[in-house]
C-alpha cells in the first residue's frame, strides 16, 4: 500500500446507540485520547465507471478550516494504483495539487492546536 498516498483499509458500520458503542469500547479497555467536533458533508458521484465519495470536512477547532477527502474502493490490491490515479486526477481537476495533500490526522492537528 502507498503510505504516502494516505490510503488505508477502513471498516465502517452504522451505530444506532452511540452511548452503547462507547460502553463497548471502554469495556475493551480503551480510554478517550481526544474529542473534537468534525462536521462532514458527503457527495457521491461516478467517474470512469468508479464510484467516488467527496467529503467536505470542517473542523471548527482548526480555525474553521475546510478539508476535502476523496475516496473510492479498490476491490483488490492490483486495483489500488488505478484507483489512486483516478482520485489524484479528480483532485487535480478541482485545483488541488500534490503539494496540497497531507497525511496529518485530524486528531494530531487538533492536539497540536490546543494549548500544552
Task: Please characterize this protein's 3D structure.
The chain has 116 residues and is α+β, with helices and mostly antiparallel strands. The chain has a domain at 37-113. Helix content is 28%, strand content 23%. It is built from 3 helices and 3 strands, in the order αβββαα. It has helices spanning 18-27, 80-93, 106-113, and strands at 39-47, 50-59, 65-72. Strands 1-2-3 form a 3-stranded antiparallel β-sheet, covered by helices on one side. β2 (50-59) and β3 form a beta hairpin. The radius of gyration is 17 Å and the shape is globular. It starts with 17 loop residues before the first helix and ends with a helix. The mean pLDDT is 91.
In short:
By secondary structure, the chain is α+β, with helices and mostly antiparallel strands.
Helix content: 25-40%
Query: What does the radius of gyration come to?
Result: 17 Å
User: Tally of extended strands?
Assistant: 3
Instruction: Give me the side-by-side strand order of the main sheet.
Output: 1-2-3
Straight-line distance between termini? 34 Å
Silhouette: globular
Largest sheet: 3 strands, antiparallel
User: Low-confidence spans: pLDDT under 50, at least 5 residues?
Assistant: none
Q: Per DSSP, what share of the residues sits in E-state strands of 2 or more residues? A: 15-25%
Order of helices and strands: HEEEHH
What integer is the average pLDDT?
Answer: 91
Helical run tally: 3
Structural class: alpha+beta
Amino acid at each position: 500500500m502507498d503510505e504516502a498516498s494516505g490510503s488505508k483499509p477502513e471498516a465502517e458500520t452504522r451505530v444506532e446507540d452511540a452511548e452503547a458503542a462507547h460502553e463497548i469500547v471502554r469495556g475493551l479497555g480503551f480510554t478517550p485520547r481526544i474529542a473534537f467536533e468534525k462536521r462532514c458533508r458527503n457527495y457521491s458521484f461516478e467517474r470512469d465507471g468508479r464510484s467516488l465519495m467527496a467529503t467536505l470536512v470542517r473542523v471548527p477547532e482548526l480555525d474553521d478550516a475546510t478539508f476535502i477527502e476523496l475516496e473510492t474502493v479498490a476491490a483488490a490490491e492490483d486495483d489500488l494504483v488505478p484507483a489512486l490515479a483516478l482520485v489524484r486526477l479528480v483532485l487535480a481537476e478541482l485545483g488541488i495539487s500534490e503539494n496540497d495533500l497531507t497525511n496529518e490526522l485530524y486528531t494530531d492537528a487538533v492536539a497540536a492546536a490546543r494549548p500544552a
